[in-house]
Design brief:
Elements lengths: L8 H4 L2 E5 L5 H6 L1 H8 L1 H7 L7 E4 L14 H11 L3 E5 L3 H4 L3 H13 L3 E4 L2 E3 L4 H34 L11 E3 L6 E3 L3 H17 L2 H10 L3 E4 L8 E4 L2 H9 L7 E3 L2 E7 L5 E7 L7 E3 L9 H15 L21 E3 L6 E6 L4 E6 L2 E4 L2 E4 L2 E3 L1 H15 L6 H40 L5 H30 L7 H10 L3 H6 L5 H9 L2 E9 L4 E8 L4
Parallel strand pairs: 1-2, 1-3, 3-4, 14-20
Antiparallel strand pairs: 4-5, 6-7, 8-9, 10-13, 11-12, 15-16, 16-19, 17-18, 20-21
Helix pairs in contact: 7-8, 9-10, 9-14, 10-11, 14-15
Amino acid sequence: MNERVKITPSHLSRQAVVYLRQSSAAQVEHNRESTERQYALVGKARELGWPDDRIIVIDEDLGLSGSGAVARSGFARLTAEVALARVGLVLGLEVSRLARNNAEWYRLIDLAGFTDTLIGDADGIYHPALFNDRLLLGLKGTMSEAELHVLRARLNGGIRNKAARGELRRGLPVGFVWGEADGEVRFHPDEAVVTAIRHVFARYAEMGSARRVWLWFRSEGLTFPLQLHARADIRWGEASYTAIHQVLTNPVYAGAYVYGKTRQETILDGTGARKQRIRSLPRSQWQVFIPEHHPGFIDWQTYEANQQRLAENTRPQPHKGGGAVREGGALLQGLASCGHCGRRLHTHYRGRNASPGYHCAGKVLVENRGVYCLNIGGVQIDHAITQAFIAALEPAKLTATLTAAERLEADREAALKQWRLAVERASYEAQRAERRYRAVDPDNRLVARGLEREWEACLKALEAAKADLARREAARPHMISQQERDRLLALGPDLVSVWNASTTTPRDRKELLRTLLDEVVIKVDRDAFAAHLTRAGRAAR
């Protein structure tokens, strides 16, 4: 059958739309032949009888997928024109250029059948209102969608197979680089980068809170290495909470190779539009998990302990660890539970002295009024817990004061190391700028002036780094002598003095309590005007 027989004067009186699409920007840039073939369809429309003033080219969807995962303004415009019966012919190089999913494809051919619109490709002209043509168009659309599925299955299969061997090279977090061998992961060659990452884990082991680690970096004025993508250069900037948290939660830092931690899902928003979202999967659903794949900053057991501690800090569950340690004088913040209903107790402070207290969020009806299930002052309770805690630790002959002093020295030395490395980095940048300046032709003043300004800026940055290091070294406390250590050891067993010292903060006392306590259940006997405390201990860490 001659395809031109399907073209009537009614079709020629309307517009002929040439629709162009390629799946990605890389195809648009490199597959120029395909783009030229699609633009050449304008000549085919002219041969079929359409004048130039009624031929429209829709090419705003170049670089967009036709799978339906993204909105295509060009296809939406085409569908609207067909629905308004303004189009006599839709031309595309092949069906897959128009749509790779049956939802959009069948919507288009349904509208084309209602409005007497023809659809053409390299094989011929079709009228969707005719049974045989509609059957063929439907089959082509189904094959186009299936072809996309097959291509994805082949690509994903090869990717998963390589990832299962731990050889798939994806972006590594800051602190790691790929080696020359297949699947080889090595520490970053920059000592300053590695040192900064090690500080994160060391401070978290001491402080137990991602936020406190972040505040430590800020209080010390330390910069943190950042990298936008795997091929980008390391840049140093102010540490952010997000960067610290990502370091603590990424299993790559524990020496594990992981693939498939997330899954892309398509959902409908409130307006019915499709949106893509990334869903994090539990560890049991990770596609590839290879422990001890490469050297890590911590071992896997430490990583799991860190994740448990982070979870307790952010989402404390009933009868579990009570969240991150906060400021405030209430020692049982996050540890106290109601002995009547099992809820976790909240803290409050009253009076001029801000005396701590505990109350249960649950309410009961008393004389037609809602009252707290439990509401009790915390002064006597905290005192009783303190006495029991000190009595339990006194036989251990703890050297808490000496440990604190040594930790202070270690923290100060760690911060100074970062500043020394910053001076080395600034010195290297200044030397490199000098070499570039001296290598340029002196007569080329346009380039020489720019390199001279760069050299001067690097020298100023070096002087600033040296000044900061000198200032911090001058403020560094002196090292503890052997005589001072002996005196501190003599004071170590006197835990009561350490506990009551003005330099011991409520946060420090809470940290000490959590070394032995998981939970304290408080039950009030109103008739006897007494409170009963039951503690749940934990194994020593």
